[in-house]
Amino acid sequence: MAPLLLLLLLAASVVTADEDAFIGVNIGTALSDMPNPTQVVALLKAQQIRHVRLYDADRAMLLALANTGIQVTVSVPNEELLGVGQSNATAANWVARNVVAHVPATNITAIAVGSEVLTTLPNAAPVLVSAMKFIHSALVASNLDDQIKVSTPHSSSFILDSFPPSQAFFNRSWDNVMVPMLKFLQSSGSYFMLNSYPYYDYMQSNGVIPLDYALFRPLPPNKEAVDANTLLHYTNVFDAVVDAAYFAMAYLNFTNVPIVVTESGWPSKGDKNEPDATLDNANTYNSNLIRHVLNNTGTPKHPGIAVSTYIYELYNEDMRPGSLSEKNWGLFDANGVPIYILHLTDSGMVLANDTTNQTYCVARDGADEKMLQAALDWACGPGKVDCSPLLQGQPCYEPDTVNAHATYAFNTYYHQMGMASGTCYFNGVASVTTSDPSHGSCKFHGSGGNGTFINGTSLAPSSNSTASGCSSNFHVGSAAITLIIGVLLWSAAFL
């Protein structure tokens, strides 16, 4: 069997990296005090979350997401699956009502047809592929099939003999569903949606899986799991499960369908029999997961191939049935307060407000220079940031670029406002990072050093900040004036 699997491994290398990986979040609604859609979107914007998955196609949420640019996966709920899968007309009506009515203002990029149908709703399995094809046909009729992909999330429990990954295969009793489904995904250029929960793999292993292996913690080489058939080394459960799915598809002769992980996370609280559902472990898992994904690490089978992942989930859902851990997978509570602060050193953006002074607000790479200029002028003017360190001859004048000067102003404002949620947005041209942007004698707030230009640690607004020197350093033309007006308009809502 090993030689055949090695051939499959080589054949599977045709999966290619079309784009960088992204991190998204799932938005559940089983909260007793669910924020309204406008509040949800405000939190997404403040945290720079650009990809979300909804478990339905709620009209109010889709309207709130309009004109944000946030990429949205909508879902056909399991309870609607039978109707959609048995009638092309019903599927067309669903697409017209829940997709066509909202695009292009709302950036819908995928439709998840059902969720874990083969393992949780087997009676609907016979119509699952029909439902996917009917939905896709409706997209084709509306010229949306290139923009919006159709797939369906699968539980990783559907993969049998998942370790070593090279021996994994899907539950063979569903071959009559999986083969046409994979043909559809391949022909439509879509991807395989996988729900992967290393927490449950760890819990159900009865001590066989080490906690560090589940949490992405570094392992010594002699502790890494090795696939004897391929000699690939696995340092974490997540990669092993993703590769098991790749091998299971290859077992059915499908080697060019990429994988997107639609759910993964770790609970921050659990019952007495769930001692590893803790804040620290949840923080460790999600922080390491985000870093792993955004670094485009890929998996041992497909190194460098994007495995975009949606974290489960945005909010703690106190109304979910079951154990205490079921209610505590969220990054935030209903008020938008972070459950814990993600530790994402050197990995770019964070998904939670930091109260430990260890994050910074910087200009986004590739941001429009005119938008940056407008935001810089606002920060140094109405934002009351003392921008005098940016004057020629001062510590932060060099490098003399809009990006560098905006980064200083944004970060100062962000810390001046106590790093509150929404204070590092600036109309989308700023983002939070854990990488200290200080350089030379230019020390940024939050770096642990105050530099030569800050008296003490006070961050009170300067009374002469409107004459701080930003405007004299940078010419403000009519286009920039127009953009400043735009900045002032959104600042009331987001700052």
From TrEMBL:
Q: Which UniProt keywords apply?
A: Cell membrane, Disulfide bond, Glycoprotein, Glycosidase, GPI-anchor, Hydrolase, Lipoprotein, Membrane, Plant defense, Signal
Q: Which PROSITE patterns match?
A: GLYCOSYL_HYDROL_F17
Q: Which residues form the signal peptide?
A: 1-17
GO BP terms in the entry: carbohydrate metabolic process; defense response
Any Gene Ontology CC annotation: side of membrane
InterPro entries per record: GH, Glyco_hydro_17, Glyco_hydro_17_plant, X8
Catalytic activity entry: Hydrolysis of (1->3)-beta-D-glucosidic linkages in (1->3)-beta-D-glucans
Recorded protein name is glucan endo-1,3-beta-D-glucosidase
